[in-house]
């Protein structure tokens, strides 16, 4: 079946470090979104990125749709970056949005 | 611009009782989604509405879950009777939902259900 896989599942870093989170998808997508789930459970939009590269402050994302992956970069990590990061792929085949299982990021002070 | 509104934020019930969650999407958003997120997992789509019509409810346990969006704006998700495994966060999201790809999703704060 259609799959959206995220890696790594867990990541522990020291404050100030850089990180790269990956999202692979098994089928063609209309678009891809990255979310950060804060400690209170709300999903906060980070990027809506069907292709190409976008940057927002210390965060940037790149989607290579032809190779079916997207990357989220976090530079100079802060403790407030901790939480779970999800990617969600909008599938061309049936216009369904499927979430990955998330990457749990823990930034140590 | 107001975001997606959900209520209640928290609900504790005993098994076999019923519960209802309410969602008001971003103004002008035609597509509304209900997701279930069990602890430690990613959100799972329960039902997707386009205006007041159902686009996808293939993962909705229809023997106990129901949802409606009568006037194409607000939506209610009901569980009756609840089971222990229904303990989860119920997330409502909306998107513009114009013709073509679904568009950017925006989520509410969620409704956390605990079934005892």
Task: Lay out the secondary structure.
The complex is a heterodimer of chains A (109) and B (116).
Chain A: E1 4-7, E2 10-14, E3 19-25, E4 29-37, E5 43-48, E6 52-56, E7 59-64, E8 69-74, E9 83-91, E10 97-99, E11 103-108
Parallel strand pairs in A: 2-11
Antiparallel strand pairs in A: 1-3, 3-8, 4-5, 4-9, 6-7, 7-8, 9-10, 9-11
Chain B: E1 5-7, E2 10-13, E3 19-24, E4 31-37, E5 44-50, E6 53-56, E7 65-68, E8 75-79, E9 88-95, E10 106-107, E11 111-115
Parallel strand pairs in B: 2-11
Antiparallel strand pairs in B: 1-3, 3-8, 4-5, 4-9, 5-6, 7-8, 9-10, 9-11
Describe the structure.
The complex is a heterodimer of chains A (109) and B (116). Chain A has 109 residues and is mainly beta. Chain A contains no helices and 11 strands. In chain A, strands 2, 4, 5, 9, 10 and 11 form a 6-stranded mixed beta sheet that branches. Chain A starts with a strand and ends with a strand. Chain B has 116 residues and is an all-beta fold. Chain B has strands at 5-7, 10-13, 19-24, 31-37, 44-50, 53-56, 65-68, 75-79, 88-95, 106-107, 111-115. In chain B, strands 2, 4, 5, 6, 9, 10 and 11 form a 7-stranded mixed beta sheet that branches. In chain B, strands 1-3-8-7 form a 4-stranded antiparallel beta sheet, with no helix packed on it. In chain B, strand 4 (31-37) and strand 5 (44-50) form a beta hairpin. At the A-B interface, strand 4, strand 5, strand 9 and strand 10 of A face strand 9 and strand 10 of B.
């Amino acid at each position: 079946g259609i799959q959206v896989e995220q890696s790594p599942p867990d990541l522990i870093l020291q404050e100030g470090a850089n990180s790269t989170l990956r999202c692979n998808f098994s089928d063609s997508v209309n678009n891809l979104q990255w979310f950060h789930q804060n400690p209170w459970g709300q999903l906060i939009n980070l990027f809506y990125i069907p292709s190409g590269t976008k940057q927002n402050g210390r965060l940037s994302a790149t989607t290579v749709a032809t190779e079916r992956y997207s990357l989220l970069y976090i530079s100079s990590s802060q403790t407030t970056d901790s939480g779970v990061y999800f990617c969600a792929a909008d599938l061309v085949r049936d216009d369904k949005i499927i979430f990955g299982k998330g990457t749990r990021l823990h930034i140590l002070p | 611009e107001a975001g997606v509104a959900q209520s209640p934020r928290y609900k504790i019930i005993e098994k076999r009782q019923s519960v209802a969650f309410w969602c008001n999407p971003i103004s002008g958003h035609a597509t509304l989604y209900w997701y279930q997120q069990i602890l430690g997992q990613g959100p799972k789509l329960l039902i997707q509405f386009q205006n007041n019509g159902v686009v996808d409810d293939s993962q909705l346990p229809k023997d106990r879950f129901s949802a409606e969006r009568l006037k194409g704006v607000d939506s209610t998700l009901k569980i009756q009777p609840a089971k222990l495994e229904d303990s989860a966060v119920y997330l409502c999201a909306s998107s513009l939902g114009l013709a073509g790809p679904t568009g950017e999703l925006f989520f509410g704060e969620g409704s956390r259900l605990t079934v005892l």
